[in-house]
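Title: Prediction job returns without error message
Component: structure pipeline
Severity: low
Priority: P3
Assignee: unassigned

Description:
Job completed but the reporter wants confirmation the result is attached to the right record. Sequence as submitted:
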Amino acid sequence: MIERQGILGAVKFMAGFVLLLWIILLASAAFPIKNLGIVPRTITGLVGVAAAPFLHQDAAHLIANSFSLFVLGTVLIALEKGRALTIMISLAILGGFGTWLIGRPGTVHIGASGLVFGLLSYLFFFGVFKRDLKSIIVSIAIFFLYGGAVWGVIPSSPHVSWESHLCGFIAGIPLARYYARRA
């Protein structure tokens, strides 16, 4: 069973991470850092693979990502403990690189939603691949809470990076399989 200290630590870490995103958003009002996002198939756009999850267009954009990032990140940390940070970084890099490869030309992709979709996918598929009771329960809960979000991987608005959603989601599948075999 998940220890109380593990859950409390997970909550503190993710609260700090989301707070950091809000601080960066406030700082972006004074500094033009939003251009550091993913610019598909450009050398300078590769910087965005690492930077994009930390950058948001405005408060509404960050609000849209904050709750799901907090909840899914907390669940990941509580379940995966020491591997969670490695998994989150891997999801961000794989999803970001995929966005760099397939993103619409001439656009700048920013936001943590690719990471959110990666966490969603990872937590769902981990239970599918691991097949133990705890992981299956988490998979079912994630499906019921966030299953409708999967529609975000198809184009809907020119101002929403469905490419980031799709690539984040896809990145979660092989990572879930890899770590399920090592659990």
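Comment from assignee: result matches the submitted record. The CA atoms of residues 5 and 78 lie 9 Å apart.
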